[in-house]
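Running this now, will post back.
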Amino acid sequence: MPDAIERRRNVAPWWGLLFAIGAIGCNAAFFASPPLQGMLPWLSLSFVVLALIFLVTGLRRAFGQGHVYRGKVLSVVLTVIALIPVGLAAFVFVSARRLPSSTAAPQVGQKVPDFTLSDTLGRPVSLDQLLAPASSSSSSVSFSESRAPKAVLLIFYRGYW
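Update: finished.
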C-alpha cells in the first residue's frame, strides 16, 4: 500500500498553548524582581508572538493538510484556550507602556517635601505639623495627640486616574 499516508499529530497548537502560558508566567515573574527584570515584558511579548505563530501553523495544518495531520477539533479548542492568555499578556504589555514614567517618584529614604491633606475629620493637616514637637501649653490635648510621631509612612501608588 504505497499510497497510504501516515497521519501525524499536530503538536503546533500545544506549543502555542505552552508559549501563551509562558507569556503569562513572564508577567507574573515580573513582580518577583528577578535579575534583568526590564527584559521580562519583552520576553513576554516574544512569547506572545511565538504562541500566535504556532497557533496559526496548527490551524493551517489541521484545515489545510487535514489528510496528513489529525486533530481538527483539538486544534481549534487549544487555539481558543491559548488566545485567552495571549490576549491578556498583550493587553498587559500595551497597558504598561501607557503608565507614566516613575523617574520623578520619590525613592526610599528620600526626604519628602511638605504637603497638606485632610484628616479623617476633614481638618487640614500638614506633614510639618505632624512631625513638629507638640506644645505643652494646651492641657486639653490628649496623651496620644501630645507626642509627635517619630516617622510617617507614605505609600505612593504608581498610575494615573
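Residues 102-161 form one domain. More later if anyone needs it.
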